[in-house]
Amino acid sequence: MTWHSREIHTEQGPVTKAESKMDYRGKRRGEDGFAAVIDFLLANARLVLGVGGAAILGIATLAVKRLIERAGRVPDDEKPDQKTIDGWEELSLVSASPKLLKKGIEGVVMKQIAAATKAHKAELSKPSSAAPEKPKVEVKRLQLCLSLQERLLQYYQSHVTLSAEDVGHAQQQALDICTEIQGFLHTKHPDMPLGEMHLGGSLLDDLQVVTADHACFLVPLQIEDALWRLIPGEETILGKPQLWMVRRINLEYFPRGRSFWDRYMVGGYLSSKTIIEILNKSVMETMNWPSLSSTLECLVRPVMGSQELKLEIKDARNQLFISILPIIRLDDTVLAAQPEFTGSFDNMWYHSLYTSETAKLSELDEEDHGHRKRCLKILKAVCKSTPPLRKLSGGHLTNVILHLSEKEFDWSEAALADRFQQAITEIIGYLEVGFLPSYFKQTVNLLSGFTEEEIDEIGFMLYCAVSEPEILLQT
Asked: Which intervals carry biased composition (Basic and acidic residues) (predicted)?
């Protein structure tokens, strides 16, 4: 179900013109700012919140509306607080709704409503003859307010970039462990045709943000071109573009056993699950991790209970997680054994486009001295630091930036704020239709693994950020 297909249903039904015109005694103080919050919430409720969320928000808005109406009709001889107390109680009940909490609204929308209602209540308590006056603290805050461009650059320096020292330390730790594992594998399985293990991923490509806390080892399996063929996802029984298979061919001329990898074949196809299992037994369950930890002066241990091959490295300085990825590379195609993507399909391999995407991003920045990578890293840091957005990975954000580069050509530092806001709008658009095409393979939907609830949660958070992008930069 997409956001466009939803409708708001309330017990009260549509609001008539007569109901919308309230009999006020002059223009109430604080009305403009307060009404702006309500108008924004109502205008966008159906698009973002869905039926349940919009209905609850409608109830909240009606409560506030009744509160304002009561306040506007208070006789001169009565105290505002006595007449409006029922409205405040109604609003507090709404803010405690479990449906609001489930949708993640309480932390954002209700915060805005609460702030606005608190300000309005303060205004109502003032004598009617008193002229509205801006608090000195508020004036000072406005004077010190930074532009979005300045906030982004400040956020980039203080929260996004990693020190060269931290990156170097993490890389050196990873390389030392990589060397130890490769030496152990060559000793234990001297006949296993493996290429040189090497470090890959965002830590190597200067795309890691906030902390240097993850890396990956790529373990190339050397397969024979004449004995194996890569089957694109569209040609498999599943028909999923990013889930490929590796089929054994020419068995009539080269019978089973001619390739080392024949022993890990299931049903005529090289099994990614079997490869992971053999590496798990050969490395994770066999290596002397306490001895290695002592040698490298840091704690090195396998992560238990994980489908993938993962290590945890910890010392007094930081914590680093390393994924070990068996890969097959033929020409420009890279397939990886990644259970997080292939799921329970034993013979499926994940078609990784990471190398192509990062190379294209660097190429575009080099051509026009642009700041696409900087914009990407800010978005990655925002998503990593904001729980509702953590489902959005670097892969999703990289593809958004690449698509945006097709229609926007100014990626200078001066345009950083515009591109950042535009990227947020683009993501909302993709979430709205439930489809984010891969830049290099348009048939691949990068949102296919998202649930409707996750899309609603992410969409709501980003929609709030459209009018107030600074909420994503709060620390």
From this structure: 1-10
Q: For residue 383, give every residue at least 6 positions away whose Cβ sits within 8 Å of its Cβ, in sequence order, or none.
A: 389, 390, 392, 393, 397
Tokens, residue 337:
């054994």
| Residues 412 and 147: beta-carbon distance below 8 Å | no
**Is a pLDDT exceeding 80 seen at residue 296?**
yes
Dist. CA 115–CA 358, nearest whole Å: 43
57-69 burial code (b ≥16 CB/10 A, e <16)? bbbbbebbbbbbe
CA quadruple 104, 120, 46, 15: dihedral sign: positive
- 347 confidence band (pLDDT: 50, 70, 90): very high
Mean pLDDT of the chain: 79
CA 195 to CA 182: how far, in whole Å? 10
Q: Which amino acid is at 155?
A: Y
* Report for 19-33, 41-55, 110-124, 163-177: range of highest mean pLDDT: 163-177
Mean pLDDT of 251-276: 95
Helix axes 164-188, 289-296, angle to 10 degrees: 140
Q: How many angstroms separate the CA atoms of 66 and 44, rounded? A: 21
Residue type present at position 408: E
Q: Rounded CA gap, 48 and 435, in Å? A: 16
pLDDT at 142 over 60: no
- 214-220 and 319-330 strand pairing: parallel
CA distances from 416 to 362, 370, 413 (A): 17, 10, 5
**Cβ–Cβ under 8 Å, residues 361 and 373:** yes
- Residue 415 is encoded by which pair of tokens? 């345009």
What is the rounded CA–CA span in Å between residue 229 and residue 224?
9
- Identify whether the C-beta of residue 64 lies closer than 8 Å to the C-beta of residue 87: yes
The sign of the torsion formed by the CA atoms of 337, 343, 347, 348 equals: negative
- The two structure tokens encoding residue 306: 């994980």
DSSP 359-385: HHHHHHHHHHT--HHHHHHHHHHHHHH
Enumerate long-range contacts of 175-183, CB under 8 Å, 24 or more apart: 175/199, 176/296, 177/292, 177/296, 177/300, 177/311, 177/313, 177/322, 178/217, 180/287, 180/292, 180/295, 180/296, 181/217, 181/283, 181/287, 181/324
pTM to 2 decimal places: 0.72
Do you know the residue count of the chain? 475
Tokens 């229609």 map to which residue? 407
